[in-house]
Structure formats: C-alpha cells, structure tokens
Input
Amino acid sequence: MRADRLLSILLLLQAHGRLSAGDLAERLEVSRRTVCRDLDALSAAGVPVVTDRGPNGGAYLLGGYRTDLTGLTEPELEALLAFGGQGPAADLGLGVELDQASRKLAVAAGPSRSGRLQERILVDGERWFRAASVPPHLSRVQDALWSDRRLRLRYRRGLDRIVDRTVEPYGLVCKAGTWYLLAGVGGQPRVYRVSRIEDAELTEEGFERPAGFDLRAAWTAQVGNFKSSAPERVSVTVRVEPAVSSQFARVMGDLVVDRPGEGLAVLDFPGCEAAVSPLVAFGGAVEVLEPADLRERMAAIGRQLSALYGQQP
Output
C-alpha cells in the first residue's frame, strides 16, 4: 500500500539522514521512479523533504525535521523497548514480530530516545537452573483462542489421575513464566496449567465469548479466590549452619524477611506445608526453631525417611 510506503520512506530518512533514490528503491523493493513519485507526494503533503541531484545527491529531511509518529512519551517508549522478543512473546511465537515492532518504534523515535534503557537494563525472565521450555500444547490452545472454538483436553490432575474436559478458552495468562489457560466449563470459569495438558484437540464447535469479557479482571478474581482459600501465612525461624549459609541465602532469596542473630533467619511462607519441601532439602544443616507444629512435621518426615532408607534394599 502506498501509505505504508510513504511512512517507511519517512522513517528511513529520519533514521539515516540522507539516502539515494536507489537505496530507497532497494530497501522498499520498488522502482526508482516509484520512489521519486513518493518523495514528490511527501513534499506536496508538507513534509520538508529535499532531493539533491548528482552522484553525491540523495533525499533528506530539511533542518533535521522529525515527526513523532508514535505519539509516545520517552518513558512509554523505553518501557516498550525494554522487553524485546523474549519470554512470553517468544513462547507464543511472536518474538520476531515484537523485535521488528521494537525496531520500528526505535527508528520513529530516534536514537537519542530509544537506546538509553536498553543500554542499561536487561530483563532476563528465565529462572536459575531451570531450562525454559514451551508447553507442548500451547500452540493448539492459541488456535482455539483465536478461532473461538471449543477445546477437548486430557488434563493431568495428579500423578495417576487424568480427566477429560471440553472447555471454552477465554484467554492465556503467563504468571512468573508459567502459562495458564482461563476457560469456561458449564458457564463457570476454570484455570488450567498448560504444562499439565496431556492432549488437546480442537473441535469444530464454536462458542460465544461472554459479553464484555475482561481477561485481567477474570484472572484477578481467580487469584483472589486462590488466596482466600489458602492457609494463613506463617513466620518460620530457622538456624542455619555456616557451611550452607551462602546456598541458603541464594535459594530462599526474598523469603527471608529478618535476620535476628548470627546463623538465624526468619522466613515468610504461605502456610507450614509450603515450608516443608525447601527446608527438608537442607537436611540437618537447617533446623526449624519455630513454629512448633512445623518443627514436629519436620521430625515426622525425618522418622519416615529414616524408616524407609534404613531398610535393606
């Protein structure tokens, strides 16, 4: 389309300062004659584009003319450019498109506005010691979303329990690198972790999305329901052996809310059961001091492990 081509010429001239008709024609994959007509059209529209003839000639914008085609403020532009085509965008197969869009925004805004944040801040969403993997059925879920068709799932509820569900996919949510499907079942919203989908079959049955459906509001409601049903948070005091102090600090991270004394740490967990797995991994190098019921739970696990592994194989 000619409008797209005119916009591309304007962005190229803003980015490079001066380009010959041949350069523009090659970049836009059109003839030099077409480029000359487009330059005349820009000039007629009030854009101060100048064309110099001769071997060192070319087209350029008079007096460093620029136009803010994006309408974005500098902080808004920096926020968009900070994330690039990685993480969730790459999982959805949109990494290349996001990178291309970022480059176009950078050209439109000019180098003085687009490079500062990217030069100073890098967002790496991959967790330590965990290879990033895209759930195998994520693309099939996307197909159902875009086509508003029901999806037949085989979903793993537990190690030995798989259920069959036919759902109406409303939206995908990426939370801390994990993908969830928000879907309707019998008119009620349900949440499915995409990595637990064993099989997904796109049906021929269409469905009507709820009128005025707001994915963010629906997800917020689900998160609220989960938090309200979760046990109250618990403060856990532990004693840490010096030999594992560095490892403990690295693994526990933001869970540590206080250090009341040498070798002591206070951690915040969403319930006692949530504290068991990470603390058991340290064996006897980390001792739970409080609360008493968690200490008893750890002792019971110790007795179970001793009985299990103390037996002759």
Notes: The first helix runs from residue 2 to 16.
